Here is the input.
Amino acid sequence: AQSVTQLDSQVPVFEEAPVELRCNYSSSVSVYLFWYVQYPNQGLQLLLKYLSGSTLVKGINGFEAEFNKSQTSFHLRKPSVHISDTAEYFCAVVSDYKLSFGAGTTVTVRA
Amino acid sequence: DTAVSQTPKYLVTQMGNDKSIKCEQNLGHDTMYWYKQDSKKFLKIMFSYNNKELIINETVPNRFSPKSPDKAHLNLHINSLELGDSAVYFCASSQDMMGGNEQFFGPGTRLTVL
Here is the structure.
């Protein structure tokens, strides 16, 4: 079964600074990779996904991620964060029609 | 219009009780899901239905029984509630079972078992 590991449980960052959230996956076959965001007391919302093609994927709210097959990584980046980016971020992979989530990374943006 | 809605938003109950959570999607999707998010925010799939047929049952205790009366609804009934059932339960839907589809999540139901 495929799985994902999010390497950082908490990432504090100052407003307008860049942020990178790290995600590694385990798989020996083609993968579908996702990043979801969960704002406080809300459900999850898709930020972006990689299915195939260009390894640089652009998502909503200025986020982007790069699929790196050799390093089995799918790191999420944003060049300049806002206070409103404070949320929980989940990396996920599809396996056997199931979406398996990483443990999540809590991003706290401070002024 | 809310794409995926759940009721109730909060549910507080005693151990041993039976409760239900309702989910509806107005996106015309074929596939619906139930997830459980524990206190450490870890998310795990419980069930998946495609066109009212059970596709995934992720070794959930049989006290949990999903029911899909039609494609737009997937309800979750829980018998004999236990303390460990306390969590946030999310309903989600996707266009179909294909793995590349986005899943749309409801706002969650926070269940507290006392």
